[in-house]
Amino acid sequence: MTSPCYTTLARQVEALFNGEDNLIAAMANFSALINEHLDDINWAGFYLTEGEQLILGPFQGKVACTRIPMGKGVCGTAAQTDKTLRVADVHQFAGHIACDSASNSEIVIPIHRDGAVIGVLDIDSPSLSRFDEADQIGLELSVKSFEKALFD
Question: Which family does the similarity line name (predicted)?
Answer without folding.
Answer: Belongs to the free Met sulfoxide reductase family.
